[in-house]
TrEMBL record:
<dbReference type="InterPro" id="IPR001288">
    <property type="entry name" value="Translation_initiation_fac_3"/>
</dbReference>
<feature type="domain" description="Translation initiation factor 3 C-terminal">
    <location>
        <begin position="88"/>
        <end position="172"/>
    </location>
</feature>
<dbReference type="Pfam" id="PF00707">
    <property type="entry name" value="IF3_C"/>
</dbReference>
<comment type="function">
    <text>IF-3 binds to the 30S ribosomal subunit and shifts the equilibrium between 70S ribosomes and their 50S and 30S subunits in favor of the free subunits, thus enhancing the availability of 30S subunits on which protein synthesis initiation begins.</text>
</comment>
<dbReference type="InterPro" id="IPR019815">
    <property type="entry name" value="Translation_initiation_fac_3_C"/>
</dbReference>
<keyword id="KW-0963">Cytoplasm</keyword>
<dbReference type="GO" id="GO:0043022">
    <property type="term" value="F:ribosome binding"/>
</dbReference>
<dbReference type="InterPro" id="IPR019814">
    <property type="entry name" value="Translation_initiation_fac_3_N"/>
</dbReference>
<feature type="domain" description="Translation initiation factor 3 N-terminal">
    <location>
        <begin position="13"/>
        <end position="80"/>
    </location>
</feature>
<keyword id="KW-0396">Initiation factor</keyword>
<comment type="similarity">
    <text>Belongs to the IF-3 family.</text>
</comment>
<dbReference type="InterPro" id="IPR036787">
    <property type="entry name" value="T_IF-3_N_sf"/>
</dbReference>
<dbReference type="InterPro" id="IPR019813">
    <property type="entry name" value="Translation_initiation_fac3_CS"/>
</dbReference>
<dbReference type="GO" id="GO:0005829">
    <property type="term" value="C:cytosol"/>
</dbReference>
<dbReference type="GO" id="GO:0003743">
    <property type="term" value="F:translation initiation factor activity"/>
</dbReference>
<protein>
    <recommendedName>
        <fullName>Translation initiation factor IF-3</fullName>
    </recommendedName>
</protein>
<dbReference type="GO" id="GO:0016020">
    <property type="term" value="C:membrane"/>
</dbReference>
Length: 175
């Protein structure tokens, strides 16, 4: 039998608290309710570890198993889940109120690439000087961008004016 390690939070072997335990064997069958000493003795007789699976229940549920194998499986699952996680980033596309059609198409293509990779896209436009009085031109450009990307994205934050900047956030649509 192994001793309790201090670097993890699992309760097993001598580290289990005092109380009543519903003990389950390796095959998943209930062996009955035992106190701490009886449960430890049973695990010692079978030369296997006893691990508290559900410490919050009454009685606490403990399982007879090979603890090192159990930890290995848990770590393997954790690594697999981390590997399968996709980190969503926020990419920014900057526009100008005086942007030309071909430049706008280039920006839309770039936003398309970002959305296909699964990243969110922040579309921003800075108004300089007197351009702020014509913010409806900027809103029209934003509407063109949103229309061009409507099959790839959903609008997470609609275009809104924040000071001298207009911002919208597009998230990839779930297909």
């Amino acid at each position: 039998m192994k001793n309790n390690k201090t670097n993890n939070t699992d309760l097993y072997n001598d580290g289990i608290p005092t109380g009543q335990y519903l003990v389950i064997d390796e095959q998943g069958e209930k062996l009955g309710t035992f106190n701490r000493e009886q449960a430890l003795k049973l695990a010692d007789e079978k030369e296997i570890d006893i691990v508290v699976v559900s410490p919050g229940s009454k009685p606490m549920v403990a399982r007879l198993m090979d603890y090192s194998k159990y930890r290995y499986e848990q770590q393997k699952k954790s690594r697999e889940m981390k590997k399968n996680q996709q980190v969503v980033q926020l990419k920014e596309i900057r526009l100008s109120p005086t942007i030309d059609t071909n430049d706008l198409n280039t920006k839309v293509k770039q936003a398309t690439k970002f959305l296909e990779k699964g990243d969110k896209v922040k579309v921003s436009m800075r108004f300089r000087g007197r351009m702020i009085t014509h913010h409806e031109i900027g809103r029209n450009i934003f509407n063109k961008v949103i229309e061009a990307l409507k099959d790839l994205s959903t609008v997470e934050a609609a275009p809104k004016l924040e000071g001298n900047q207009m911002v919208a956030i597009l998230a990839p649509s779930k297909q």
